[in-house]
Amino acid sequence: MSNAAAPQPLPPLEGSTRVWGTIALSAATFMNVLDTSIANVSLPAISGDLGVSSTQGTWVITSFAVSNAIAVPLTGWLTQRFGQVRLFMASVLLFIISSWLCGLAPNMTMLIAFRALQGFVAGPMIPLSQTLLLSSYPRAKAGLAMAMWSMTTLVAPVMGPLLGGWITDNISWPWIFYINIPVGLLAAGITWGIYHKRESATRKVPIDGIGLALLVLWVGSLQLMLDKGKELDWFHSPEIVTLAVVASVGFAFFLVWELTDKHPVVDLSLFKRRNFWSGALATAVAYGLFFGNVVILPLWLQQFMGYTATQAGMIMAPVGLLAIFFSPIVGMTVGKVDPRRYATFSFLVFALVLWMRSNFNTQADFWTIMIPTVIQGVAMAFFFIPLVTITLSGLTPDRIPAASGLSNFLRITAGAIGTSTATTLWENRAALHHAQLVEAVNQGSSAATGAMANLGGAGFTAEQVLGQINRLVDQQAFMLASSDVFYGSAVLFLLLIPLVWLARPARGGGSSDAAAGAH
Question: Are 360 and 479 contacting, i.e. CB atoms less than 8 angstroms apart?
């Protein structure tokens, strides 16, 4: 169905049809985002059941992340070739099949292969759910559409570990994949019923084979480097150095090729638009900071504060409460308020939350630790919607899938970089603090000798006394390291604010141009 003329705008959906369309698209997004984190807490059970080490088990997460990162930026090109609705439907149905195969996997090799397939077919789902949702709402309500969409992306990462832990403990780990089947079938059925007559125009676009190969090469190398870096001691490892060189050279060739090819597989010309690059970069860096801290907090709680996985999950869960409350308000008002103001407010609240966490100590109780998490929900509500509005402002409908795919790719990659950087920095700072604290444990320190005498008097052997002292030093070292990471992240959030103001104000109200997807 080739169509060289400009596509005619589709009328927005009305009434209950729009409500059901929003529910179906949000359910598909929720299912997808949930799968990025649901397997994390189930890794010990999966590794034990399939008879492999926990290190090998991490490939269950890595394989999904690598293939997903490769597939997301291909969304724009695939949409031109197959159409938005057909591609979205294919993505959802293939995701259901690959989830079923993951649950049936008889060994770790097959599970990793099916997880890689699952990550790849999931790629277009999130960008296209954004695009289809924008086309369902009138221009004035584009912000509300993004609010509905962002709520699922905010809640799913928090729900993942909670749901994954409960399923693993009470049923069995394959069910963390099987639960996608009913959700996916329902989302696919409703989506097809509503959107099959709203297909976008397609055209025969040649396959940019070299661009695609270079994309797979450099993104795959980068993701593997980030995932294996900490385990192999980063650049002290020849394997990490090789991956870094391949990623850098591959990226350089990819840039040159894509900027000169007539039909590039990724539309890098989007970076000529100031609002796109400033919005996408601000989103990516902020998400990387957020995600890195989301990983460190439960690690610190479980490893050094005596929290169980479920208790750590309960600390993280309230982040969605205020986000769900404020997101619709942000969505309805983003057309009347400059989205740059909302994004600035979000970054200020993130900085406040991280500053509060940087003041934690080992005596902090459950509620003290939970309060910043509740406040963080406000920051998250004001984060996605304004920045998506800025990033997509002024784009024509046919460029929205490519722009959404590319900005989501930057966000996902930044999340991986943020996780690797934060955990490495955390452990390095802990080693430094440990060395400094150990210097104070000597015969001249009354606190140290008093503690050792008390432990000895309680019946501990000399070795046990030293073990207990080392454990206390470890606990303090990692607490101080957590404070360092939290404080540094708070400062970086403040430094991000000028980047948002490099964007031009969206003409005629914040959401109007972002709603180009609807017209």
Answer: yes
Q: Per-residue pLDDT tens for 465-479?
A: 777 777 888 888 989
Same domain, 358 and 507: yes
Q: What sign does the dihedral 24-29-32-35 (CA atoms) show?
A: negative
Tokens of 439: 């210097």
Residue of 58 and 262 predicted with greater confidence: 262
The residue from 219, 247, 264 where one domain ends is: 264
Residue listed under structure tokens 């600035």: 344
Residues 360 and 501 in one domain: yes
Please write the tens of the pLDDT for every residue from 328-355.
888 888 888 889 999 999 999 999 999 9
What distance in Å separates the CA atoms of residue 70 and residue 78, rounded to the nearest whole number?
Answer: 13
**How far is Cα 441 from Cα 501, in angstroms, rounded to an integer?**
50
* Residues 510/339, Cβ–Cβ less than 8 Å: yes
Both 105 and 155 in one domain: the answer is yes
CB atoms within 10 A of CB 130: 29
d(CA 247, CA 214): 9
At residue 210 the predicted structure's pLDDT band, cuts being 50, 70 and 90, is confident
pLDDT reported for residue 295: 78
φ/ψ of 202, rounded to 5, equals -120, 160
Contact by Cβ (8 Å): 295, 425? no
Phi, psi of 5 (to 5 degrees): -70, 160
What whole-number distance in Å separates Cα of residue 47 and Cα of residue 364? 33
pLDDT, tens digit (0-9, with 9 covering 90-100), for 361-406: 888 888 888 899 889 888 988 988 899 888 888 888 778 888 888 8
Q: How many CB atoms lie within 10 A of CB 351?
A: 22
CA distances from 406 to 92, 135, 179 (A): 20, 19, 29
Residues 257, 127 share a domain: no
Q: Identify the residue whose tokens are 């699952």.
A: 118
pLDDT tens per residue, range 272-316: 888 999 999 999 999 989 888 887 887 788 778 887 766 777 777
Domain extent for 451: 431-480
- The alpha carbon of residue 380 and the mean position of all alpha carbons in its chain are separated, in whole angstroms, by 13
CA 125 from chain center: how many Å?
Answer: 14
* CA atoms of 62 and 231, how far apart (whole Å): 13
